[in-house]
Design a protein that fits this description.
Number of strands: 6
Number of helices: 3
Helix content: 25-40%
Oligomer: single chain
CATH class: Alpha Beta
Shape: globular
Strand order of the largest sheet: 2-1-6-5-4-3
CATH architecture: Roll
Mean pLDDT: 95
Structural class: alpha+beta
CATH topology: Nuclear Transport Factor 2, Chain: A
Radius of gyration: 13 Å
Strand content: over 45%
Largest sheet: 6 strands, mixed
Number of domains: 1
């Protein structure tokens, strides 16, 4: 199963622990818009509540490209505050896990 398939399954099931298992211990997550950077632990603190929230919805997802080193994907997301975004994310991979993720989002509503 590819990283994309594992990420998609974890999000569809809202399985926080399966999602976090895909993140490398030394991972860095970067928000393009703000430049904010997060460790795996910090990212986990943010994600746990989001993933559990029924109003946090990954409406659609597609893999743009994936190999052993990189995953590029595009998602349409809905958030608890009723906003929607198109999110492009690039995931650098190491040892079968995400070592760096950078996201860029466009507000749709």
């Amino acid at each position: 199963m590819t990283i994309f398939e594992k990420l998609s399954a974890a999000m569809a099931k809202k399985d926080f622990y399966a999602y976090m298992e895909l993140i490398h211990e030394d991972a860095v997550i970067v928000f393009h818009k703000s430049g904010s950077k997060f460790s795996k632990a910090q990212w986990g603190e943010m994600c746990e509540g989001m993933i559990a929230n029924e109003k946090f919805v990954q409406e659609s997802t597609r893999c743009v490209y994936e190999n052993d080193d990189i995953l590029v994907k595009h998602d349409f997301m809905s958030y608890p505050d009723a906003t929607k975004e198109a999110v492009m994310s690039v995931h650098m991979l190491k040892d079968g896990k995400i070592i760096k993720m950078e996201t860029g989002a466009t507000l749709l509503s």
